[in-house]
Amino acid sequence: MAAEADVKYELIIRDLQDVLGGELIKTILAEGRTPKGYWGTAPTGRPHIGYFVALTKIADFLRAGVEVTILLADVHAFLDNLKAPLELVAHRTKYYQFLLLAVFQSLGIPTSKLKFVEGSSYQLTREYNLDCYKLASIVTEHDAKKAGAEVVKQVESPLLSGLLYPGLQALDEQYLGCDFQFGGVDQRKIFTFAELYLPRLGYAKRAHLMNKMVPGLGGGKMSSSDPNSKIDFLDPPATIRKKIKSAFCEEGNKDDNGVLSFVKAVLIPISQLRIERQKGQTGADDEEGKDASGDQTPFVLEGAPEGTVFSVFRKEEFGGSLHYKSRDDIDDDFAAKKLHPKDLKAAVADAIVRLLEPIQKAFEESEEWKSTEKLAYPDPNAKPEKKKKKEKVYHPPPPGKGKNAKPAQSDESAPSKETTTEVQAPVEGAKAESQS
Predict the structure, then answer these.
(1) pTM score, two decimals?
(2) How many distinct structural domains can be found in the chain?
């Protein structure tokens, strides 16, 4: 039992950058219980391929028998400095769910084992809001601002909503009933905030697992708000190749290199996942890969040596293809200038196009997803439709009304034409007799 618990724990934490409270997870596994974890995302901008880092890692959790919840944090999306206006949040939440399901299917991760929850389903309850008020009574402005510094959009005059954000994320751990929260290392301050304040409300302290962040294509953080730093899941192949071609990838520079980092953070882990699946090494997840979409072969060329996790095609005249068994190997070759940026970029572009093909196919085959996408991310340059002029409908005037109507008589005493003639005749006759 102890050996099995150790194997599961190593699966849970492998390839992570940081772990807080790992002993809690070890205790749960040693007692033979099932750990419960959650990963959350706020549906704001269009998701980019950096999401593969976290989503691929969820396969390890399922292999270790973890019960995984996916939180679609719609309330958080609105609170984060209006990144997603309230009227768009519902559409973007639906879009994110479509996308995440397609990505999980392309990775061979069984969605039947995942629980999807919308934050508003419990964050608007009386109990949750009372806890928000309790937190507000003990959290300082300094601590709230510091906790959200790397996650909440920072502006010169911060809104109160951004200060509420970290508290809500901390409370999510309690209301989702999890043992650990999983997220990027950029959320570390929110995680330590939760560890500090949840016990002050009488709630248990949870463990926190953090993956590495993928640098953007021009260096720095890959961000949904910077189109030049990222590749969207729905970018066509031509756009992908163009973005990779223009990405910063200085020869010999292995640091702050978005292209090389993507290989190490995404492509190699997915290759390892597929190679292990081919060998039947899926642990507690016996459903992994059964309903997978798209090409499930690793990013390895035919004839590569055993143990290769990533290959770079190169013509024989330039020394032949290169094959790598680890991240360190590809780092070393790039630093030594044995691997040229042009060859690396070509291999990465090909891999990304292949990786996104089943996701984009799912999008094209779903009319509901396509209509949701238009509502969630309307074209900012689209001209508003001109309002159609209302057609004039002729309504005849009531009797006696309108420009051609004859003047109405005031009352019944007014003489008619016939009466006037009858009265005037004797008068004219009398005048004639008096003149004769």
Answers:
(1) 0.84
(2) 1
